[in-house]
Design a protein that fits this description.
Two copies of one chain form a homodimer. The first copy, chain A, is mainly beta. The first copy, chain A, has a domain of 89 residues: Roll (Ubiquitin-like (UB roll)). In chain A, 12% of the residues lie in helices and 33% in strands. In chain A, strands 3-2-7-6 form a four-stranded mixed beta sheet, covered by helices on one side. Chain A is globular. Chain A starts with 6 loop residues before the first strand and ends in a 6-residue tail after the last strand. Chains A and B meet through strand 1, helix 1, strand 2, strand 3 and helix 2 of A and strand 1, helix 1, strand 2, strand 3 and helix 2 of B. Strand 8 of chain A pairs antiparallel with strand 6 of chain B.
Chain lengths: 138, 138
């Protein structure tokens, strides 16, 4: 059991509505539209610099474990198993906040990333390659 | 034909490598690992505030059109067709940069979003709902 229960909050056009009752992981799960594989894409963003670090997938149990432990937990489609970010590398993600998008099919995690988020050693998985569209600015 | 061809640049652990030759949309496409539906998830982030605005999908033609026009173009899985963001709402996305992640299966767009990115009228699709994990900070 976690030391403190997750809290859920509504934002949006009506503004902040205050915290909902604790032990509301089920409230979060009820908002999520998992795909036919039982997964949702999860974007991890560094909470203070706002750098987008990586995109991975979560199943229901990964969302639950993330909310209950405060650590980023994902589901590997290639290995067919859940993994807690940093268990091997030490590059753990402390999750400050989990957001759900308007239609419930994508999750945004605001995290404090220890070390590199990318398995290549880069801070972000998006550091490797960029293209500038026609008329784009560097 | 676009007025100016897209440019492609390598970043990453070796640092900036300078611009590659123009007309390199094919170089970008060659880096992308489209899924079994021929799509990649695309994250749109406001280029200056770094706010994550939305997540949508792109097929090969949407990537090409985005790079050639400098506007965010996506593929709607529900409607089965491409759409240029803002064609209906006027809330266009001017794309400054397109990044590809380490394994080529996700795209990050740095955009200048006119108005609301979300069809609900919210600036971001992630403004609607948030949960704070156990031990998380508001």
């Amino acid at each position: 059991m976690p030391a403190t229960a997750p809290r859920v909050e509504l934002l949006g056009t009506l503004g902040r509505m205050g915290f909902m009752a604790p032990d509301s992981v089920d409230d979060v799960l009820a908002r999520l539209a998992f795909n036919e594989e039982g997964l949702v894409p999860a974007i991890a963003q560094q909470w203070d610099t706002h750098e987008v670090l990586m995109m991975a997938w979560m199943d229901e149990a990964a969302v639950r474990e993330t909310l209950e432990t405060g650590r980023g937990v994902y589901y590997s489609r290639s290995r067919g198993e859940r993994w807690a970010k940093g268990d091997t590398s030490g590059h753990v993600q402390h999750v400050h906040e989990l957001r759900v998008d308007c239609d419930g099919d994508t999750v945004l995690l605001l995290v404090d990333q220890v070390g590199a988020a990318c398995h290549t050693g880069d801070r972000s998985c998006f550091d490797a390659f960029r293209a500038l569209p026609a008329g784009g600015q560097a």
